[in-house]
Every structure is written in structure tokens, then in C-alpha cells.
Amino acid sequence: MNKMRFFLHVFLALALGAGGVSPAFASASRIKDIASLQAGRDNQLIGYGLIVGLQGSGDSLRASPFTEQSMRAMLQNLGISTQGGQSGAKNTAAVMVTATLPPFASPGSRIDVNVSSLGDASSLRGGTLIMTSLSGADGQIYAVAQGSVIVSGFTAQGQSGSSVTEGVTTGGRVPNGAIIERQLPSRFKDGVDLVLQLRNPDFSTSVGVADVVNQYAVEKYGAPIAEARDSQEIAVEKPKTVDLARLMADIENLVVETDSPAKVVVNERTGTIVIGADVRVSKVAVSYGTLTVQVSETPQVIQPEPFSKGQTALQPQTNITAQKSGGKVAVLEGPDLKTLVAGLNNIGVKPDGIIAILQGIKSAGALQAELVLQ
Predict the structure, then answer these.
(1) Which residue from 110, 169, 195, 343 could staple onto 176, CB 3.0 to 4.6 Å apart?
(2) Can you spell out the DSSP letters for 268-300?
(3) Which domain holds residue 356?
(4) Which element (helix H / strand E) includes 203?
(5) pLDDT band at 256 (very low <50, low <70, confident <90, very high)
(6) How far is CA 88 from CA 63, 65, 85, 118, 370, in A?
(7) What is the Cα–Cα distance from 287 to 10, expressed in whole angstroms?
(8) Pairing relation of β-strands 263-267 and 233-237?
(9) Partners of residue 36 on adjacent β-strands
(10) What's the confidence (pLDDT) of residue 146?
(11) Distances (CA, A) of 237 to 160, 211, 213
(12) CATH number at residue 251
């Protein structure tokens, strides 16, 4: 079995499920897996800091003057005089510190932070991030970060100038390196109702979620509480006698049948093709062939005749060979994914050829799906 057949069979297995599971059953998901709470959004934090303790792989202070300015300001805040000439040490690096503040995070809890070099430091391995405040979009400080930096990449350089680098050495991570100092202004139980947001907007799924929630609410509370606002948002009204956290815990475990538009995702750089289970192809004839032109140079040496005053010469000789392969005509009609994959397999072309065929079918109006090119 060639690589193209292997890839297409993998896509078929992913779409139809292993062991003969039906697509309808495979598309059933819990609400917590397909939707998020609008009040439970993440918030991004950012800060500027210094990493110290590097083994000569930090910023050169002449090329990165902001690093020296930051060092002087930090030392002055610690009560240390900074008068004098420039320092030639390369054990410090200026970095941007980023983190994600999770929803409902309380003061005292810890989160991971990422550090990325700003100057010309060659590596952050072995460094320590000193106390750095992290601010939100509103300018308020929500966390303070400090700790040892973990760098996954490495670099090694010899005396002759040759070097080996693997991964990225100018970026790292400080696990549990930030302590949350401020709570978000809004709290979960301050809300009057719940708003669920689908991660993949779709009207059918949105209405399905509202129907499942209403069916549960009618059985337990005697009245519907959910309404689909659009393809992404579902509003859930809280009954007066119900705790909001308990209501959300019950709703997020309800199972709903999900739906999504038919798509074919193509990455031309890597040759990856992902075909959705609902992709359909109208009856169309496809012919695919490739023309290979090979040019080879075989120069010949020409010797002069004996006792002549001629010189040895080189006579060029060019051979051009044209070979055409493929050209096979196949009729494709995919009422389901299995038939479509079988039809593509019968043509027997490589992934780049499948990509060209799919683009041609889409241009002909026979591909009943959205073609996404990456």
C-alpha cells in the first residue's frame, strides 16, 4: 500500500470512527467539550523583566542599551549606587514575560509564565527571572513572576567557530513562576444568567444545545431556560431557587449531537489533506497526468589525427528525454466519505496530485464542501 492510500485510509478511520462506530454516535459530545462559558474567559498578562545568572550568553550591553538601563534602575531600587563605567558582563538578558490568567483565578494561586529574549542574547539556559510584575489590558498588575527558567533547546560552539543548535534557546518557561495578586473584578455568581459560546459556531449545533438544555430543564424545573441567540451563543436563564454553579455543573455534562459544515483542509507545503465526513462530490470525470522532461549532458572527447598539429577538443552532446505518465481518466462520485476515498485511491496519484484534483473539482462546482487552503 503506497503512502497516499495509507493517508486516505487514516482520514477515513478518523471520520467514521474505529470498530465500525457510526458517524452519528461519534458526533455526540458533552456541552463542556464544545462550548465555553462567556464569563469564564482567559485574560492575557504581559510584563518586562530581566534574567540573570547566564553563562556569558546574555545581552551585549552595547548592542542592547535597554538592558543596561534596566540593570541600573533595578540596582538603584535596591539601594546600590550605579555610578561608574559600563559593565562588560554578558550574564543578563532583557525579556518579555507573558502569561494567561485563567478564569476565576484567586489570589495566591500560581500560573506558568513564558519568557522571550528582547536583545541579542544567544541562550537563556541556566538563568533566573527576577521579580517581574504582570499587567492586564487595563494596566492593573494581576501577578508577579520570578523563578528559574527552563529552556528546551541547547547550543554548543567550538573554538574554531563551528556550532550546533537544537530548538529555540532564546525562549523559555517558568513553571508555576507567577503568583496571582489581584482577583478579576467580576465574579461568576454575580451574573444573572449563563451565556455559552460554541468553539465551532454552527446554527444546527446551537439549536441542538438549546433543545437539550430545555429538555433537561423541563424535566427538573418544569420550564425551558435556554435560547439560541445565533450560531455561537446560547443564553441560559437561571431559575430563582437554583445555585448558578450547580446549574452549570449539570448543564456541561449533557450530551448533544454536534454538526459542522463540510470542509476539505489542504496544506500544500506539507502535502496534508483532511477530508470531513460530510464532504460530497457530484459526478465528475478526472484525468491526471504528469510530463517528465530529463536533460542529460554527455560530452565527447575528440582526439586529433596522428602526426597532425590539431588539439584535443571537447564536443558537447545533449540528450533530451520526455516521458508522460498517468493520464488515467476516472469518474468520481462521492455520496459518502468511503466512496470518495475509494475513487481517489483508484486514480493512484501522490498527495500533490490529490490537492490539484480537489482544487479542480472545486473550480468545476462538483465539490459540495468548503476548500480550505493553508
Answers:
(1) 110
(2) TTTTEEEE-TT-EEEEEEEEEEEEEEEEEE--E
(3) 1-27+260-301+314-374
(4) helix 203-221
(5) very high
(6) 12, 12, 9, 18, 58
(7) 25
(8) unpaired
(9) 197
(10) 95
(11) 71, 14, 11
(12) 3.30.70
Q: Which three cell numbers mark 29?
A: 459530545
In angstroms, what CA-CA distances link 215 with 161, 219, 225, 235, 262?
71, 6, 9, 15, 28
The upper half-sphere exposure of residue 116, i.e. CA atoms within 13 Å in the direction of its Cβ, equals: 6
Task: Give percent of the chain above pLDDT 90.
Answer: 25
Point out which residues pair with 313 in neighbouring strands: 302
- Provide DSSP, 36-92: EEGGG--EEEEEEEEEE--SS-S--TTT-HHHHHHHHHHHHHTT----SS------E
pLDDT in tens, 277-331: 778 877 777 766 654 545 565 777 777 777 777 777 777 765 655 555 555 555 5
Taking only Cα atoms into account, the Rg of the chain, rounded to an integer number of angstroms, comes to 32
Q: Identify which of 60, 45, 357, 14 has the alpha carbon closest to the alpha carbon of residue 371.
A: 357
CB atoms within 10 A of CB 72: 15
Distance CA 263, CA 185 (A): 40
Given 180, 205, 221, which residue is the final one in a domain? Answer: 180
* Residue with the three cell numbers 528525454: 321
Average pLDDT, the chain: 78
Domain end call among 180, 204, 234: 180
Round to whole Å and give the CA distance between 310 and 321. 34
